[in-house]
Amino acid sequence: MNNILSSLKGKGALAALALLAASPAFADALVENVDGMTLDENGRVVRFTGVLVDRDGKVSKLLQRRDKRPEKLDWRIDMKGRILIPGMIDAHGHVMGLGFQALALDLSETQSFDEAKAKIVAYAAANPDRPWITGGGWNQERWGLGRYPNAAELDALVPGKPVWLERVDGHAAWANSAAMKAAGITAKSESPSGGRIEKGANGQPSGVFVDAAMALVGKAVPAPSPRDRNAAFLEAQKILLRNGITATADMGTSLDDWMTYRRMADLNFLRVRLMTYADSVDTAVRVGGSGPTPWLYADKLRMGGIKLYLDGALGSRGAWLKAPYADAAGQTGLPFQTDTQLLNQMSRGAMDGFQLAIHAIGDRANGQVLDAIDEMQTSYKGDRRWRIEHSQIVDAADLPRFGRNGIIASMQPVHQTSDRTMAETRLGAERLGGAYAWRSMLRNNARIAFGSDYPVENPNPFVGWAAGFTRQGPDGQPFGGWRAEEALTREETWKAFTIDAAYAGFAESKFGRLAPGMRADFVIVDRDPSAVSPAELRQTVVLETWVGGQKVFERGGREDAVPEALTRDPVRGGPPGR
Predict the structure, then answer these.
(1) In which element (H, E) is residue 5 found?
(2) CA 77 → CA 29, 53, 551, distances in Å?
(3) How far, in Å, CA of 408 to CA of 464, rounded?
(4) What is the pLDDT of residues 359-371, one digit of tens each?
(5) Which UniProt keywords apply (predicted)?
């Protein structure tokens, strides 16, 4: 802290010092004249016209038009009849990944290989001082390439400088020859367990590394500095708050990530609520000691669980399937752990009370974690809330098993709309009975928590909300919805993005809806999300975001002033990046 303060010079120093020293100023307050709506514990819509907020940043009462307003208040604000809803919650995201992607080369919006090439060249030219060009978001399926890109194609775009670009799902990465040379990759390099080095007909690495093989090159990439991490977090937080997300699960939190969150909170820059899941048992123990941390910083930060991986993704054919891929004879994906390894890690976490969140996309991986939970449940009693992250491709025979043992299916509606044609190609029509099966999950008494898996997908929760009850993409396709029998209602989807997303993180008594005693987390939007068409819902504009009774975002308003010393790289001198 002293180093930071001593580095603040010039006329802005006093303002920065005042900001750093500031503490939340809670008060008895009234947010008045709203067209307010929330869900009750059972998912029924409750309407109101005012919100009383106490000095702890919690709702003390929801007011109807007929209710008398208090005369003595510290402050009140007239919302002029605008729409107020609870803050949205993303049940599965990657906070630092979102921030780093925003600051690095982002190919997520590119629609063709040529467009991606042009963007790579432009970014390299604009960042000549970076030792590596890093970024991600590429998707060969969207490009219609019909194959993975290769190192030679990157060499032609950025000769001599290492380039390392992650695929959109984070389960594959693309390197050029300079990056592979820096990492010591040769034709003799072998694929690690749970990973695959793509190789050409000549036996040479092609430049694409899948799942665990990514670490072979990733270890050579210069690590982000603390200032890089500060900047990435602050950028991610801005994106989340602009989208009306007041709380999020952070899946795969590293020790460096945790230290970044603590550092930002200590300096009073933490606005969004973070339910963090450690990237390993070891990280969880180092952070929590003997178990989950308490809620810190007025319920804004907690490490309560551990994220484990069982397989890769469909796009890279890393999802572990019971039968071979329909479009790749003999390939069944990449299992990351044996049954014994999985049970060992789950036991190590469960014995200290950590919640387990297991990434499983393919039907074989989902079956493996279901088997493990069945076995674990006999030894570890109580409210465990076992989470299966994604649960995208499930054997129809396994769907009833999700209703046992208090399992939470943590799913992402936008994956269904963006992946549906690929899923048909990868699996064939006859194996789609348990694919993205939201309605079947509820029918089998599983609890669903919805998120986006940002930065793999857009974090905009209103896009996911529309997808949840239409099973259609932004283009309105397919007509009637893809496997429409698996759609939820509008209210069920809303609940999965609020109440159930909070429940999935053991936070249902703190936030997720607006009611007395709950945190006053809400957003002001430009339309009634309960009444507009799906197309209009996707276009919802967040006008203001409030967390704990404090306004933390206003469209068109000034962002928080951040001391330059927190984010500016003193070596490179420019804006930070990876």
Answers:
(1) helix 2-6
(2) 8, 11, 11
(3) 18
(4) 999 999 999 999 9
(5) Signal
